[in-house]
C-alpha cells in the first residue's frame, strides 16, 4: 500500500487495482469549513485530472479532480452525515471515494509524501 | 482540487490601516475591492456563531466614508437618492440607495445627519464610481469630502453594547444623544483618549452593534482596545457575508446592480413616504410605477431542501420554465442549512412557493420564505446594556 499526491492536493491510497481518494490537510485548510461534499455515484467513470467531486465550503464550491482514471466503486457515506470530517480527518475518515484503476501507469507521475510536502512548502 | 479563491497578488492590492494587525492575528488575506482583506481568522462558522452569541470586530475600512456639507446638502442628496433627507433628524441614520437615471441601483449606502453635514458610508468596490457620479452632479455651495484618512470598524453582536459602554467616551457636543441612549440607526461623535470617533449604532449583520469611524493612525489602537475585551474576537469577510445573508441583507454587486430597481430588490422601505408622493429622485417615474403597479421580478429568500448549497448564478425553475436566478447563496451557520437570495418572476415570489434550483445539473427543491432568514437582534428602544 502506498499513498501518493497530486499538485491539485488530492491524495490516493492504492491497494492492488483499487484505490481510495481524498483531499489533503493543506487543501482542507485552504477551503475552510466544509459544509457539503457532492460525491460521484458508484459506477461513474472518472478520468485522470477530470472533475470527480465538488467540495462546498461556507463560501464557495471547489472541484475535486480524479488523480487517476477508473471506475468509482463507492463514495464515503459518512460525509453525508458529517461533511466536517473533511476538516477534522482529511486523510482518514474524511476520504471521498474509492475506484478501480483503469491504468496503473497513471500513478507514475504522482508525488510521494516527501515530494508533496516539499511542493506545499514552496507554495 | 481547484483553488477556492485566488491568492492576493501583493503588488496590485492596496493595504488597509489594520493590515499588520490582521496578519498578526493569523488572518488569511484575500483580494477584495482592490484591497488585501481578512477572509477569516479561526474559521467562518466559528466566527459567525461567535458574532451571533458575543461580539465580533470587523474591519470595513475598504468602504467609502464621505462628508457632504452645505446649506442645500439635504435637497441635493434627494436628487441622488429616494430618502427623506430634509426630514432626517440630526443624529439619525438612514439606509438609502444611489440611483441611476433609469432607477437602477448604483450603490446602497448609510446616510447620517451629523447636525452640520451628512456622513455617508458607501461600498468599497463602488466608492470611486460613486464619488465620480456625485462630483459630476455637485452644485456650487456643496462640498463632497472623501474621508480616506479614516478607518471604519464594526463591532457587532449582542455583547457589543456592553463592551463599548466600558470605554470612556466624552461627547463632542452638549446637544447630542448620550452614549447610553443611542438607539439603533442613530449616531454622533465622541472623544476616546482624545481621538474623535464617529459612532453609529448600526451594522450589516442582523445584530445589534456599532460602526466606528476612526482616524487611520488611531485605528490599530482602537482595534486592540476592543479586542482586549473577552467578548470580542476578530471576524473576517467570510462570516460578514454569511451573517448578512442570514439577515436577508443584499450585497451590492450581487443582489443589487444597475439593472435592478429598488422595488425589484424589495427595498421599497428605502423610498421615504414623502418621496413616494413627490418623486423627484432618479428614475422616479419607473420606480413609482413599479411600486404602485408591480414589478416584473422580486428579490426573495429561498430555503433549500437538503444540504447542498446553491450559489450565485444558479438558475431557478418552476417545472420546465426558468423563473429566476440566485444572486447570493451559501450555508447559513446559525440555521445549519443552505439558504439563498434570488430574483424570481413576481408570479413565483409569494411566500411558500415551491421552486427548484439547478445546481450542476441537479434539481434541488427550494421554497420562497420571508427574510430575514433569522430574526434580527436590533434594539430599537431602551438601549442601555
List keywords for this structure.
heterodimer, A: 123 residues, alpha+beta, OB fold (Dihydrolipoamide Acetyltransferase, E2P), 6-stranded antiparallel sheet, 3-stranded antiparallel sheet, 4 helices, 9 strands, globular, B: 385 residues, Gyrase A, domain 2, Elongation Factor Tu (Ef-tu), domain 3, 7-stranded mixed sheet, 9 helices
Can you describe what's shown?
- The complex is a heterodimer of chains A (about 120) and B (about 375).
- Chain A has about 120 residues and is α+β, with helices and mostly antiparallel strands.
- In chain A, about 20% of the residues lie in helices and about 35% in strands.
- By secondary structure, chain B is of the alpha+beta class.
- Among the domains of chain B are: about 150 residues, Gyrase A, domain 2; about 70 residues, Aminomethyltransferase beta-barrel domains (Elongation Factor Tu (Ef-tu), domain 3, Beta Barrel).
- Chain B contains nine helices and 20 strands.
- In chain B, a hairpin with a 4-residue loop joins strand 17 and strand 18.
- Chain B is globular and about 65 Å long.
- In chain B, about 50% of the residues are buried.
- Chains A and B meet through helix 1, strand 4, strand 6 and strand 7 of A and helix 2 and helix 7 of B.
Topology diagram in text:
The complex is a heterodimer of chains A (about 120) and B (about 375).
Chain A: E1 2-5, E2 10-15, E3 18-23, H1 25-31, E4 34-38, E5 45-46, E6 51-57, E7 61-65, E8 70-75, H2 78-81, H3 85-88, E9 97-101, H4 113-121
Antiparallel strand pairs in A: 1-2, 2-3, 3-9, 4-6, 5-8, 6-7, 8-9
Chain B: H1 19-24, E1 28-32, E2 35-40, H2 44-53, E3 55-59, E4 64-69, H3 73-78, E5 93-99, E6 105-113, E7 118-122, H4 127-135, E8 143-146, E9 150-156, H5 160-165, E10 170-171, E11 186-192, E12 195-201, E13 209-215, H6 216-227, E14 232-234, H7 237-246, H8 273-278, H9 284-293, E15 297-304, E16 315-318, E17 321-332, E18 337-345, E19 354-359, E20 362-369
Parallel strand pairs in B: 3-14
Antiparallel strand pairs in B: 1-2, 3-9, 4-7, 4-8, 5-6, 6-7, 9-13, 10-11, 11-12, 12-13, 15-18, 15-20, 16-17, 16-19, 17-18, 19-20
Helix pairs in contact in B: 2-7
